[in-house]
Amino acid sequence: xxxxxxxxxxxxxxxxxxxxxxxxxxxxxxxxxxxxxxxxxxxxxxxxxxxxxxxxxxxxxxxxxxxxxxx
Length: 71
Fold this sequence. Notes:
Strand content: 5-15%
Order of helices and strands: HEHEH
Number of helices: 3
Low-confidence stretches: none
Oligomer: single chain
Shape: globular
Number of strands: 2
Structural class: mainly alpha
């Protein structure tokens, strides 16, 4: 993710970033605290979602819209 972030910010220096932990209905590969810490480290917002249950999906799109409006 760090390399991806560098590439995005190289092309679009003012781009807002959002880290999304997906599939929260399954066993976690990355814990919430680690995801949040990484997002904070790279200066990104952080959300968790489940496409299966729909949890957090509306919040994801609302957050994307808010971040886009601020860009």
